[in-house]
Structure formats: structure tokens, C-alpha cells
């Protein structure tokens, strides 16, 4: 799994690629916490490059989302496809967390 | 008259051969004759000869007195080769160098004699006829007489000094070498003594005696460094082995604890099949194959309320000990909530019955309600952000009606008699434990006798073979269609075997859990009940729908 980020307006966009499983998912949580420490509380995770996500990956996302929320921010997602979209749907994460089709939509929200 | 004729003819000074002047001087003499002349230059002629007789005794004595080393000697010959002096008695005046050469057949001596008579001067290596020793002969002419003096030096005596010097040198060299060799050996021994002791100690250490005593090295040299390094290595080895032993013990303890934990975990899962002895309305079988000692999967089933039977399957996020803890908490909480919901329903039903005196209404516990309450319990103080997916269903085994709800779990498979297997649609309600306040939709379906539900965890559909291919939902449906109406136990076992065969040796990465429930219909009504139920199914009851009293609806995301 790889994380690359850039500031876009009020949001910090993280592009996640590769596989998010028990071995790598800590990296996502750590990255979000690092952004939080740097003052970015509103994060958009672009998962269009993500090939696979395990339950450990979901746990990592949940942990990051909770911490951002506690700091008054939020964590939104966009670009889900294939098995990742299916996992989000089946696990109900699509209901728990804000999910957008495109990055544009994710960045357009207030 | 040689003394007169020869010089007169030769017109030069002539020395006679030595002769014994008997009657004259009675001694050994040689006569020197010198001519003198009339006139000058070309016209001169010999006027007379002057002679002088010279006694040779002094010469003999002189030559005899020449002492050359120990056995060396000198001799004198005339221009004819006759010995004038010679150390051997009877040789002087009686023999010439040529006669001696002839006598002994010594060609070298003859050549030497010829050269001496010619007035040559040389140093030659030869053997003495007199003493028989090898040596060096030096000869040179005496100019005025034409005689020649020879001096013989025996080789051994001549070289004696040289030999002695060589011997002394050799002795000194050899002795010095031996002394040096001894010294070197002693030094080497003193250096290698600790090395040898170190080697003995090293062998002992190598054979496993880590407490072998190391030699003390007094010198501060490389050997000392080596011994110090070796001692350090010995200590490190001991320490390493201590650590290893401790680590092994600790690992064994953890392993043993994990084994016990595994037994406890599998022990809390119900294993009585069929689950309700005496009831034949339904069959149920479940199995759980952990990927590691402990895992996060679970299944459960228990009666909840009159003629109601709750069954569920769950999967905790992650693996290992954390997942196992969360699994134990989840399973216990869900069961407690389900029983409490069932109890509350009964009480409400009883109250209403008492109030209205009508027939007691049957209230089936609502799985969505159970999951909502369990979710609130699990989400509370959930610092680890772990969660669990649960499929929870309640069967009314009198009617075959099933109420079910899913918290982010894989959709179960519905097996209808004479129909292809189908996946139950779910609402995509969130996993339990993630956030409090979530509501879960409850759906209802009616099972006809012979219909079955197959619950499973993603360990089944996400089982991987070595080519990284997933077992998948399509394959699962296919396999279940193939199994048809086999018994629940046989279905479970055949499915487990199929997944195992698919993985073909690839390491199992997730727990594999499955639960199969087949509805048989009520026994009291016999087949007629089943038939009517089946008829009911064909007419209308096959679709699932919300059983909701409005609270669940379609989406339960409340923030």
C-alpha cells in the first residue's frame, strides 16, 4: 500500500494505491494521524488505485475516521470500484462514512 | 775441459754442473767460467777464461734450511735437471728431475722439469714423489746460473689454516643456528602455550561445555586479544543460550496458553447437534476451522422464546488474540441481548394476553433490534476500533418463518427445493461495534420444508489457492447446487472439503466458518403442513421484505 497526499483547498487528499491488509493498514492510520498533527482535519481518501481491502484495513479506516471526527474534522472517500466498493457496501461502511463517486464531488461538499 | 771449451765457444759466462771436488776442496763445488777478450767489437777474440770454483755447501745448507710448513721442502736443480739439493738422501747429484720422472712414469713431473730447465716460473698443483702428498709446487729460475728452485707445499698443510677457519666458522655458524633455533622454539612455545590451552578450551566449548575454563594470558599481545575475544564470545554464547532458553520457554508458555485459549474459544461454541433434542422441525450443523490457534470467527445458536430458535454467524475484524477477545465479547453480548429481547417480548406478550384474555400473540424476537442493541454495547468505549460482522436470524420453527438482519456480513445462501441457490439480498447495514446508534433492518422469509439456509464467513468465499484465485460466491453456489438436499452435516463437511481441495495446499489465511440450517416442517402436521407451507411459498412468500415496524427502514445510518 502506498499513500501520497496533497493539499486541495480546505481538504487534504490522500491517494491510496495497492493492497490494504493486516500488514499495511497501519500505514493509512498513521498517515491520517500525521495529517491531523499537521493541522489537516478534513481528509479525502481517493481509493481509485486501491486493489484490495481486508477487515483490518476497514478497522484502520474506522480508527482514523473516529479520531478525525473527534478533532472536528472528517474523513471522506471517493473513487471506489470493484472489490473495494463491494466491501464498503457489504460491510455497511458506505453508510457509516461519507462516500462519493468522484473526487470532484468529495471536494465540492461544504 | 768443459770449464774452458764451453765458455770459449759460447762467449758467455758458464756455470758448470756441480761436482764433488775430490782432492781439491773435498767439497761440493760448481765452477763459474768467464771468457775475456783481445781487441774490440767485431775484431775481438777470446784471450782466456777466468774461473771461480764456488763451494755449494752453503747453498745446500741454505736450501735445506728452508722450512716449508711441516713436511714441505725446497730443492734446486741445474740447467740440466740434476738435483743440486733434495731432502731425500742420495738424490742430490745422483739423479735428475727427468730420471725421477722416468722412474716413476710421472709425465707431469717431466713437463715441470722441462719448463724449469727452460727457465719457466709457475705455480702448479702436483703430487710429491718424495712424500706422496698432494700439494702445490712453485718454481722459479735463479737468473745468473740458469738453475731452478722448486718449493713444494703440501695441500693439507697449506690449507690447514683455511680449513681450520672454515671449521671454526662452520662451528660458530652451526652452534649459533642451533642456539637460535632453540631460542626460537622456546619463544614460539612460550607464545603458543596459551594458544594451545585456548585451543583445548575452544574444543570444550565447541563440544557444549560453555563453562570451560579459559587460560590466563599475562602478555598484552595478539594472543591476549584473542583470549579476551574468546572469553567475550563465551559469555555472549552463554547469554544467548540463556536468552534462547528463556525465549523458548516463553514461547512454549505462550503456545500452551494459546492452545488452552483455543480450547476455551472452541469450547464456548455450542456443539450439540441436533441442537434441540426431541425437535425434528429443523436440522442444523455448524463448523469452524480456525486459521491460527485462536481467531475471530464464531457461530452460535440457541432457543429464544417459544418455538423460536436464534442462529447466527459472526466474523471479527483482524486475526489472532485481539480478534479472539473481541469474538468472545461479541458472542456473549449478542446472546445476552437476544435472550433479553426474547424475554421482554414474552413478558409483553403475556401482559397483553392477561389484559385482553385472548390467545397469546406469538412475538418473534427481532434480529435487527438484537443487532442494534449489541452494536451499542460493542461500540461503547471501543478504543481499538475493532468491529464484527454478524448475520443473525430467528426461526419460528412452527411456521418456518425466518426473521434476519445483517451487520455488514456476507449474504447467506438460500437453498430452495427444486431451485438454484440464491444469495439473500442485504441492506448494507454497517458492521457492529463501529459506531453507536446504528439501526438494522430486519427481513423476513418463509422456509418451506426441505429449504435450507447456508451461513458462512469470508473464510469460505475468500479462500485462496496457490494461484491467488478466490473460492468466490459463484463457486459456493455451484457446490451447494451440486450437493442438493444432502444432510446438513454432509453439506457442511462436503463444503469444507471442497474449500480445502480448492486451496490445494495454500496456507489458510482466515477462519472458515459455516452453518447450515434445513427446515423440515412440523412433525405434528406431518407432510401436510409441509405441503401447505410449500404451497404457501409458491403463491407468495418467497420474496423477502422488511418486517419493520418502521424503525429500521432501509438505512440505518444515524449520526
Q: In words, what does this structure look like?
A:
The complex is a heterodimer of chains A (110) and B (559). Chain A has 110 residues and is α/β, with parallel strands linked by helices. Chain A has a single domain (2-103), classed as Transcription Regulator spoIIAA (2-Layer Sandwich), CATH 3.30.750. Chain A has helices at residues 25-37, 55-70, 82-91, 93-96, 103-108, and strands spanning 2-8, 11-20, 42-53, 74-78, 99-100. Chain A has a 5-stranded mixed β-sheet. In chain A, β2 (11-20), α1 (25-37) and β3 (42-53) form a beta-alpha-beta unit. In chain A, α1 (25-37) runs parallel beside α2. The longest helix of chain A has 16 residues, at 55-70. Chain B has 559 residues and is an alpha+beta fold. Chain B has 3 domains: 2-160, PAS domain (Beta-Lactamase); 161-239, no CATH class; 292-540, PPM-type phosphatase domain (Phosphatase 2c, domain 1), CATH 3.60.40.10. In chain B, 41% of the residues lie in helices and 22% in strands. Chain B has helices at residues 2-10, 57-64, 97-104, 107-117, 155-158, 160-206, 222-267, 320-356, 367-379, 458-461, 472-483, 488-503, 526-541; strands at residues 14-15, 19-21, 27-38, 45-55, 73-77, 83-85, 122-127, 134-142, 147-154, 282-289, 297-303, 308-316, 388-396, 401-407, 413-415, 422-423, 443-446, 452-456, 512-519, 545-546. In chain B, β15 (413-415) and β16 form a beta hairpin. The relative contact order of chain B is 0.07.
Describe what is shown at a glance.
The complex is a heterodimer of chains A (110) and B (559). Chain A is α/β, with parallel strands linked by helices and 110 residues long. Chain A has helices at residues 25-37, 55-70, 82-91, 93-96, 103-108; strands at residues 2-8, 11-20, 42-53, 74-78, 99-100.
Secondary structure: elements and pairs:
The complex is a heterodimer of chains A (110) and B (559).
Chain A: E1 2-8, E2 11-20, H1 25-37, E3 42-53, H2 55-70, E4 74-78, H3 82-91, H4 93-96, E5 99-100, H5 103-108
Parallel strand pairs in A: 2-3, 3-4, 4-5
Antiparallel strand pairs in A: 1-2
Helix pairs in contact in A: 1-2
Chain B: H1 2-10, E1 14-15, E2 19-21, E3 27-38, E4 45-55, H2 57-64, E5 73-77, E6 83-85, H3 97-104, H4 107-117, E7 122-127, E8 134-142, E9 147-154, H5 155-158, H6 160-206, H7 222-267, E10 282-289, E11 297-303, E12 308-316, H8 320-356, H9 367-379, E13 388-396, E14 401-407, E15 413-415, E16 422-423, E17 443-446, E18 452-456, H10 458-461, H11 472-483, H12 488-503, E19 512-519, H13 526-541, E20 545-546
Antiparallel strand pairs in B: 1-3, 2-3, 3-4, 5-6, 5-9, 7-8, 8-9, 10-19, 11-12, 12-13, 13-14, 14-17, 15-16, 15-18, 17-20, 18-19
Amino acid at each position: 500500500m502506498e499513500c501520497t497526499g496533497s493539499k486541495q483547498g480546505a481538504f487534504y487528499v490522500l491517494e491510496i494505491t495497492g493492497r490494504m491488509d493486516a500488514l499495511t493498514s497501519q500505514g493509512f492510520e498513521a498517515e491520517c494521524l500525521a495529517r491531523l498533527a499537521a493541522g489537516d482535519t478534513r481528509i479525502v481518501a481517493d481509493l481509485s488505485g486501491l486493489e484490495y481491502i481486508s477487515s483490518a484495513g476497514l478497522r484502520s479506516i474506522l480508527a482514523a475516521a473516529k479520531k478525525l471526527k473527534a478533532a472536528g474534522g472528517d474523513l471522506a472517500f471517493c473513487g471506489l470500484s470493484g472489490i473495494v466498493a463491494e466491501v464498503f457496501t457489504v460491510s455497511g461502511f458506505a453508510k457509516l462514512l461519507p462516500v462519493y463517486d468522484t473526487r470532484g464531488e468529495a471536494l465540492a461538499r461544504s | 775441459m768443459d770449464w774452458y771449451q764451453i765458455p770459449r765457444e759460447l762467449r758467455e759466462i758458464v756455470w758448470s754442473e756441480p761436482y764433488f771436488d775430490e782432492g781439491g776442496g773435498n767439497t761440493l763445488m760448481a765452477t763459474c767460467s768467464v771468457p775475456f777478450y783481445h781487441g774490440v767489437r767485431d775484431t775481438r777474440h777470446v784471450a782466456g777464461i777466468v774461473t771461480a770454483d764456488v763451494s755449494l755447501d752453503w747453498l745446500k745448507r741454505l736450501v735445506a734450511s728452508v722450512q716449508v710448513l711441516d713436511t714441505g721442502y725446497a730443492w734446486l736443480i741445474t740447467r740440466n735437471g740434476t738435483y743440486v739439493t733434495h731432502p731425500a738422501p742420495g738424490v742430490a747429484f745422483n739423479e735428475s728431475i727427468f730420471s725421477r720422472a722416468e722412474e716413476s712414469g710421472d709425465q707431469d713431473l717431466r713437463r715441470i722439469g722441462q719448463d724449469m730447465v727452460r727457465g719457466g716460473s709457475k705455480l702448479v698443483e702436483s703430487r710429491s714423489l718424495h712424500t706422496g702428498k698432494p700439494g702445490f709446487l712453485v718454481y722459479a729460475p735463479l737468473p745468473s746460473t740458469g738453475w731452478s728452485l722448486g718449493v713444494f707445499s703440501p695441500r693439507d698443510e697449506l690449507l690447514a689454516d683455511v680449513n681450520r677457519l672454515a671449521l671454526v666458522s662452520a662451528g660458530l655458524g652451526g652452534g649459533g643456528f642451533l642456539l637460535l633455533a632453540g631460542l626460537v622454539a622456546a619463544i614460539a612455545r612460550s607464545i603458543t602455550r596459551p594458544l594451545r590451552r585456548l585451543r583445548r578450551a575452544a574444543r570444550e566449548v565447541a563440544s557444549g561445555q560453555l563453562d570451560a575454563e579459559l587460560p590466563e594470558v599475562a602478555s598484552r599481545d595478539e594472543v591476549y586479544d584473542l583470549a579476551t575475544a574468546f572469553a567475550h564470545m563465551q559469555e555472549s554464547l552463554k547469554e544467548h543460550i540463556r536468552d534462547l532458553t528463556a525465549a523458548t520457554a516463553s514461547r512454549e508458555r505462550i503456545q500452551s496458553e494459546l492452545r488452552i485459549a483455543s480450547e476455551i474459544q472452541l469450547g464456548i461454541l455450542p456443539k450439540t447437534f441436533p441442537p434441540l433434542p426431541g425437535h425434528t422441525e429443523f436440522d442444523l450443523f455448524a463448523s469452524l476451522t480456525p486459521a491460527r490457534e485462536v481467531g475471530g470467527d464464531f457461530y452460535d445458536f440457541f432457543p429464544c422464546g417459544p418455538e423460536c430458535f436464534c442462529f447466527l454467524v459472526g466474523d471479527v475484524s483482524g486475526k489472532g488474540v485481539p480478534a479472539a477477545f473481541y469474538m468472545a465479547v461479541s458472542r456473549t453480548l449478542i446472546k445476552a441481548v437476544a435472550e433479553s429481547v426474547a424475554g421482554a417480548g414474552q413478558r409483553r406478550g403475556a401482559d397483553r394476553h392477561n389484559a385482553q384474555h385472548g390467545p397469546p400473540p406469538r412475538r418473534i424476537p427481532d434480529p435487527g433490534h438484537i443487532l442494534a442493541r449489541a452494536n451499542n454495547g460493542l461500540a461503547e468505549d471501543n478504543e481499538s476500533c475493532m468491529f464484527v460482522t454478524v448475520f443473525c436470524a430467528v426461526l419460528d420453527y412452527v411456521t418456518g418463518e425466518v426473521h434476519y438482519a445483517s451487520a455488514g456480513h456476507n449474504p447467506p445462501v438460500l437453498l430452495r427445493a427444486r431451485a438454484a441457490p440464491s444469495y439473500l439480498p442485504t441492506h448494507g447495514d454497517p458492521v457492529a461495534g463501529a459506531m453507536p446508534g446504528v439501526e438494522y433492518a430486519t427481513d423476513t422469509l418463509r422456509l418451506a420444508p426441505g429449504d435450507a439456509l447456508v451461513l458462512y464467513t469470508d473464510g469460505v468465499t475468500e479462500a485462496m489457492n496457490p494461484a491467488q484465485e478466490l473460492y468466490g460466491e459463484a463457486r459456493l453456489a455451484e457446490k451447494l447446487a451440486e450437493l442438493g438436499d444432502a444432510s446438513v452435516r454432509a453439506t457442511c463437511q462436503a463444503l469444507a472439503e471442497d474449500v480445502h481441495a480448492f486451496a490445494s495446499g495454500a496456507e489458510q489465511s482466515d477462519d472458515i466458518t459455516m452453518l447450515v440450517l434445513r427446515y423440515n416442517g412440523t412433525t405434528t402436521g406431518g407432510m401436510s403442513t409441509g405441503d401447505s407451507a410449500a404451497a404457501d411459498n409458491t403463491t407468495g412468500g418467497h420474496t423477502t421484505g422488511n418486517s419493520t415496524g418502521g424503525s429500521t427502514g432501509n438505512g440505518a445510518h444515524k449520526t
